[in-house]
Design brief:
Length: 403
């Protein structure tokens, strides 16, 4: 089992992640980890925090001489903003005499749409900061760090993880617009909203500007695409082994994601079966797959098992909860209606959420890959994988005679 845990607060000293279950012998390129962390910080509509942080992952264990040892990998991402928050976020019972920054007052006005109120009630906190610091999307930097290692494992076996933004507010790509792998791959890393249609992207930028000027926020949608996925990952035999369910839970766990779709997603509810299901044909000459599928409306999964087609997962993100013109709330101390608290925030973070979703999809897919082909070392996995692929090719090379 490939599993991970994260720790840390938005304005604490560091974020920490532990990734357990990696095989030994995987070459890890930490410049690629830092590259993914930079991608997470980009996108039009991000707040001032992104100008402060310049995330970099430090490896504390599990890698020696650039290769995994089979032990848990521990990564640390420091918060550069910690220097401004030591008087508010100190760990000790009393404030250290050398603590820097300023001491901020308690947060008592929860924000609608955030974990503030429910978290304060659940854990009995009077200061909502005890909730919001951990519930903050800053935690996703740790996920992206470990997800980058998972995607390096996938790349070793020919899989590539991509994403693009389809919707910001009311501006969206046409519902029948299928973005190809080449289009997603060709997106420049400095694309402001990572949309493949430049005209639509410009309208998205204007929508973000208008929301920011109004003190409001915008959500949207993105699609994660994984190419080179082998057939047979996941399972249909138990509910918790179905890969579509595992992927949906992983993407839904990202902050502000409220819905997840696979393939054509919600469209399956309104189309007839003849326009939903993907026909199965003989393999085309010169292709590697055992069969040919002229469409991929299922998004690369049937019955919780990968089909060998591109995996396509869509996430739908709500607008960020912190509004510069806050909604009504109740002060938890006085029980008087007051405007909700304001924390430094973004106007729109959909491109960043797409990068986080890439990481989560990579982690779940790597787990499913190791479930099927796993062993203690990369060399063993390569042998298992090669044998499995050859068996599939042989199975579909000639028709079987009836017994």
């Amino acid at each position: 089992m490939l599993r991970f845990l994260t720790a840390g607060e938005s304005h604490g000293q560091t974020l920490v992640a532990t990734l357990d279950g990696l095989p030994a012998g995987l070459n890890v390129r930490f410049e690629q980890v830092d590259f993914q962390l930079r991608r997470r910080q980009g996108g039009y509509g991000r707040g001032r925090r992104m100008a402060i942080e310049s995330d970099r992952a430090e490896c504390l264990s599990g890698v020696r001489h650039g290769r995994t040892t089979g032990a848990p990998v521990a990564l640390l991402v420091r918060n550069r903003d910690w220097v401004n928050w030591q008087q508010t976020m100190f760990v000790e019972a009393t404030m250290p005499v050398d603590a820097t920054g300023i001491q901020k007052p308690a947060v008592t006005r929860p924000r609608p749409g955030h974990a503030d109120l429910a978290g304060a009630i659940k854990y009995g906190h009077d200061d909502v900061r005890d909730v919001l610091e951990r519930a903050s999307a800053r935690e996703t930097a740790a996920r992206v760090a470990v997800g980058s290692i998972a995607r390096q494992l996938l790349a070793r076996f020919g899989m590539e993880v991509l994403s693009h933004v389809t919707t910001i507010g009311d501006e969206t790509l046409p519902s029948d617009r299928l973005v190809t792998v080449d289009e997603a791959r060709a997106l420049p890393e400095d694309a402001p909203l990572r949309c493949v249609d430049l005209v639509v992207q410009q309208r998205m930028i204007k929508a973000v500007d208008a929301a920011g000027a109004a003190g409001d926020t915008l959500g949207g949608a993105f699609e994660v695409i994984v190419t080179g996925v082998p057939t047979g990952l996941g399972s249909y035999v138990q509910w918790d082994r179905k890969l579509d369910g595992r992927l949906a839970q992983a993407v839904m766990s990202i902050h502000a994601i409220k819905a997840v779709g696979l393939g054509i997603g919600p469209e399956v509810a309104v189309r007839p079966g003849s326009r939903v299901h993907d026909e199965i044909l003989n393999a085309l000459p010169g292709t590697d797959g055992p069969v040919s599928r002229p469409t991929n409306r299922a998004g690369g999964l049937e019955g919780g098992v990968t089909t060998g087609q591109d995996l396509r997962v869509t996430g739908f993100m709500k607008p960020i909860s912190t509004l510069m013109k806050p909604l009504r709330s109740v002060d938890l101390e006085t029980l008087v209606e007051e405007p909700a608290a304001i924390e430094r925030s973004d106007v729109c973070a959909v491109p960043a959420a797409a990068v986080v979703a890439e990481a989560m999809v990579a982690l779940v897919l790597a787990d499913a890959f190791l479930e099927k082909f796993g062993a203690d070392s990369i060399d063993e996995i390569e042998r298992h994988f090669a044998v499995s692929q050859e068996q599939v090719r042989e199975r579909f090379s000639v028709p079987r005679q009836p017994t």
